[in-house]
User: Fold this.
Amino acid sequence: PRWLIAKSRLDEAKQVLSDASKKNGKYVAPDQIMLTAPSAAASKGGFTDIMRHPTLRIHVLIMYFNWFTTAFIMYGLALSWQSLTGGLFLNFIIGTILDFPAKTLAMLLVQNVGRKYPYMVGSTITGVMFLLTLFIERDVYPSNWPIVVLALIGNFTTTMCFAILYMYTGELMPTTVRAAGVGSSSLVSKIGGTLSTTVAALADIHPAIPTIIFATMAIISGAITIFVPETMGRKMPETIDDVERTQCCGKTEAKPKEPWMEPQEKKGLGLHLSPSAVSLG
Assistant:
C-alpha cells in the first residue's frame, strides 16, 4: 500500500489495508482508515522529476558517475588484459574466478558494515592499485607479476563496488522514481562499458594512459560518494520530499509533524497513516 499512497491512490490503498486487517483478525473498514496523501510534486515519478529536485539530482548524478566508472574499469580490464598487464589467458581466468568472492564480500559488507563506506574504500583501493602499477617497470619481473597482482586487486575491488551499487542506488531512490533512477543508472553503466572498448587503443599509444584514467576515475568516485547518505538501517524514502530533507553528507532535517501524528480523540476505531507509516498494529 505504500506505493499506492505515494501515488495518491488512496482508495486502493485503503482497500488493501482493510483486507490485510481482516486477515489479521482486526478488521477495519476502508472508510475508517485515514490516509495522508503526499504533495502533488512528491507523488510524481519519472526521470524529469529526478532532475527537478536539487538533493535528489545530486545523489543521482553521483550515482551515475559511480556506475559509469565501475563499468568502465571492469569491462575495460576484461577487454584489455593483455595490453595492460602483458598476459591474457591466465590473468583473465584468475580475474573471472575472483568474481564470486568479490560479490560474496560485497554481500557481507552491506549486511554488516553498510553501503557508503565499503564502496568508498573499495573504489579508492582500486585507484591506488592502478597508481602503483605506474611505478613498476614492465618486462623486468617474470610475467610482469607485480603489475598483474595489483591489477587483479583493482579488478576485485571494482567488482565488489559494482555489486554494492545495485543495492545502494535502489535504497537512495524514493519509491515514486526508484525504477527510473535505477534504470537510468544502469543505462549509464552500459555507456561506460561501451566506451571501455577504447582502452586497448589507448594502451597502444602508451600503456600508462588507461591506467591513469582508471586510477583517477576510481579515486574521484570514492571521494564524491561522501556527499551521498548511508542507507543501512534507515527507512527507504517514500517520496521525493523525504529525499529533499536529506542534507549534505547524509544528515537529515527534522521531519515536520504530519496531521496523522496528532493525538486522535474520540475518533473511534481506525487507522491514521501517512505514506511512510503504513501499519496495522
